[in-house]
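Before we proceed, please read the two lines closing this message. Let me know whether the structure tokens fit the sequence:

…
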Amino acid sequence: MSMAQQAEPAVSTPPAPGPKESDGRTAQRSMTLRLLARPEVGVFLGAVAVFVFFLVTAPPVRDGSSMANILYQSSTIGIMALPVALLMIGGEFDLSSGVAVLTSALTASMVSYQLTMNVWVGVIVALIVSLAIGFFNGWLLVKTGLPSFLVTLGTFLMLQGINLAVTKLITGNVATDDISDMAGFDQAKNIFASSFEVGGVNVKITIVWWLVFAALATWVLLRTKYGNWIFAVGGNKDSARAVGVPVTFTKISLFMLVGFGAWFVGMHQLFTFNTVQSGEGVGQELIYIAAAVIGGCLLTGGYGSAIGPVFGAFMFGMVQQGIVYAGWNPDWFKAFLGVMLLGATLINLWVRQAATRR
């Protein structure tokens, strides 16, 4: 045998491919389980169930104008539920968001009326005040390490007292003066509180803003570095800081986003009713938080979406108006909300367990 023959490698036939071995760690989850892992799936199913229920039990709901009214009620909750949900994904929550809405409206109204200025001056000052409240909450939380419950509870009590005391001191009444005849009012109302017709149905502009903000929040969460930061600081802020996430900036900016939402809803209320009652807003913060929780956000942070709170707010608006259209006693509204909150929490728990079960 020659040297060339000895150096030639032997040709072997590769084994026929067989089924790949896998264990529980590498097995790919089915499409159903991947869908169930989404935080908005449970609340979507709940929203459909509530919608069908009132569609059957309350015939007026089938009318286009009634549905527009339901969507309007949902939008006034949903606009605030979105930044509250982002804050909860970031591991915190804000008990002052309800009265902060009134603070922004009162500020804009009194600055405009008492100083006899264009209402846009009041609107801009109110925005600065609202962002400052959010900054204060975030800064105090980061610097002291206190739980957001305590920080924002203190802010809630301060704002509640300031709203009443300052309004009485400046206006001599518990409500602000009518600003509908002041310069700039009509332009501001077109942005914050106008309406338009679609197929003969009157639709409020807040519904459009609600959907725009929801799309923007979804894009931020899923497609930007800032969205990754939100999930990271909500999951474990120490680990997030160790890999370079700006925890302080993220926390403070999330509270400021809540301040922005409070400003926007406050402007809507002001330019819808032309005047503001200083004692309102108490309890609304629980509605916003509940809409976010029903939408799949965890109080412990690190989990949730922006689409879920949209369906959560829709459920609130559906129940609130559906009870009226069904001719039931509206006192049952809060009872329905409690059932919805507990039910949605249990459904979300079951969905997460089913999604992670191998």
